[in-house]
Amino acid sequence: MNVRSIMSQTSHSLSPRSTVREAAAIMRNQDLAALPVKGEGSAFGLVADRDIVVRLLPEARDAGARPVSDAMTTHPVSCFDDQDVAEAAVIMGDEQVRHLLVLDRSGGLVGVLSVDDIAANASEELAGQALGEIVERRA
Length: 139
Description:
Largest sheet: 4 strands, mixed
Number of domains: 1
Distance between the termini: 33 Å
Structural class: alpha+beta
CATH architecture: Roll
């Protein structure tokens, strides 16, 4: 099974200047945990609900008004839409990330793959193995 068949399609993306409040509203309304951030040219970022909670909420009084660029992961890990889901799960485990940007072979953004997508649409066992690697403490 390839990544394209189980990933979340990219129908929403943010600019680095989008506010955290805008991102949170999209995440809530679309039931998403992460959104791609499109920068200038081919630069991409990724903002996840956890990024907002861990990076902004403890320090910012009005975190919702801050730009997503303050919370996003720059240079996020990615995979290709035609890769096997098991390969993508290995990437997640190796890089200890819960979300991957999904690119086509020309480098265009086409979606986001999450551990949840793998569990719901491919294999709970594979998702569990990936999650075990993601949360493992490493020296």
